[in-house]
Amino acid sequence: MHDDYTAELLRLVREAGADRVGVTTAEPLTRARAAIEARIASGMADDMQFTFRNPERSTTPTMAVPGARSIIVAARSYFVNDQAVSNDGIAQDSVIAGAVARYAWRDHYAPLRANDSAIVGAVARYAWRDHYAPLRDALRVAAKRLHQDGHRATVFADDNSIVDREVAYRAGLGWFGKNANLLVEGLGSWFVLGCVVTTAELQHTERVVADGCGACTRCIDACPTGAIVEPGVVDARKCLAWLIQKPGVFDLRYRDALGTRIYGCDECQEVCPPSRRGAIDRSVGDERSVVDALELLTAPDDEVMRIVGRWYVADRNPRWVRRNALIILGNSGAGEHDEVALALVRYLHGDDDL
Question: What is the pTM assigned to this prediction?
Answer without folding.
Answer: 0.87
